[in-house]
Design a protein that fits this description.
By secondary structure, the chain is α/β, with parallel strands linked by helices. It is built from 8 helices and 9 strands. The longest helix has 14 residues.
Length: 240
């Protein structure tokens, strides 16, 4: 896979503004946070739940629609995001009643919701999670500025706090979320999404010239364990 990074300079301003009129966003927020022991969607950053913080980031890209997939029977998560959705008509909430089956079903629900809009203006889909606590607007702008079929994030695997990690295991960079993808291709791939197998294995099968990458090691810091949460709070990335 070829390695390509995008700067956030003025040369991308015009193309980003054009792309921002022709994309939708899927926020995958239905994880059950079993390793963390508490809903990561409700961790607090800058005084508001992460699910709200990430949705506001998505709103800055000026999409045609934002689909947020949340778990079933989590009233606090639903309540938090419903309040924001009431302010922004582009935001739609989808409840995943099979959140325990893996990310693929959440993504499939998001795709179905966008397809139901029947908008001929949507050309790309920006797919995000909620726990990359250092994700920012310039990174999303860089993803949308890319011209390839898929423009994904590239970052290192965060292992410093994983005491159970097999030290002999080879660690490679992650090519993954958030990413921007051609909408028609995403529709084609929907039937191949199963369990925890999201888009990564499908993206790897694309020709190298169809894949762009935006390097950002800050995205390594997602929150999956209590140790990672404590570290993020210590660094001031999340509110104590």
């Amino acid at each position: 896979m070829s390695k390509r990074a995008f700067t956030e300079g003025a040369e991308h301003t015009e193309s980003t503004e054009r792309q921002s009129q022709n994309h939708a966003v899927i926020i995958l927020a239905s994880g059950l946070s079993q390793r963390l022991g508490q809903p990561k969607q409700l961790l607090i950053k800058n005084g508001e739940p992460l699910i709200i913080y990430m949705t506001r980031l998505a709103i800055t890209t000026n999409p045609k629609a934002i689909v947020i997939v949340i778990p079933d029977n989590h009233h606090l998560i639903a309540s938090a995001i419903t309040a924001l959705a009431n302010q922004y008509p582009t935001v739609q909430i989808v409840v995943n009643s099979q959140a325990d089956t893996g990310m693929a079903h959440s993504l499939s629900l998001g795709i179905e919701t966008i397809a139901a809009l029947e908008s001929t203006l949507i050309e790309r889909v920006l797919i995000m999670g909620v726990d990359q606590v250092l994700l920012d607007e310039p990174h999303l702008t860089a993803l949308l500025a890319g011209k390839q079929t898929v423009v994904a994030s590239r970052y290192h695997n965060w292992q410093r706090l994983e005491t159970h990690q097999n030290q002999a295991e080879k660690v490679s960079d992650i090519i993954g979320l958030p990413l921007a993808i051609n909408y028609k291709l995403l529709i084609q791939w929907q039937s191949d999404l199963t369990g925890d197998k999201g888009l990564r294995h499908l993206i790897r099968e694309l020709p190298a010239d169809q894949i762009g990458e935006v390097n950002n090691d800050q995205l390594s810091y997602d929150i999956d364990t209590p140790e990672q949460l404590a570290y993020a709070k210590q660094q001031g990335w999340l509110d104590s």
